[in-house]
Amino acid sequence: AQAVIAIENVRLFADLRESLERQTATADILKVIASSPADIQPVLDAVVAAALRFCGAPDALIVLREGDDAIYAAHEGPIEARRGPQPLRRQTAPGRAMMDGRVVQIADLQSAEGDDFPEGRALGASAGFRSALAAPLLRDGVAIGAISLRRPDAGTFTPRQVELLETFAAQAVIAIENVRLFADLR
Q: What does pTM read for this prediction?
């Protein structure tokens, strides 16, 4: 009975520590939002750094929608990120997340699952990643961008990692909207 109690206490302590770390990351991003009312870049950089720290991936990026293009706005990690505008298409995880307005998870781009993502499969093969997770940045139900995680290993992200990425996406939207409102106010 004491062993069961000890095991449960360890699990509860680990859950509590993880929750505190997530809340700290959220608070850190909110501090950056407050300190950068006219500049979105520090916030986007803080969001991708937090996503790396808490979502179990070595690479994170944010793309923003500009018309029919996706613009890479922030990136951290060892996997190459495209520069310059790219046509917005459903053939990559971030593109599909933006176009469908929902989270997209690809466990293995090099398996049959990757058949639906030919551009993502080719990009993954050349850049060195096999799994991807993307959450749309939704403002009033319309995707203005996406945040994406990439890993060199095949496999799914946990429900907690997906939920946390959605939280980071919502924070990025808040920051983008704040900068827009600040610019309008000026």
A: 0.84
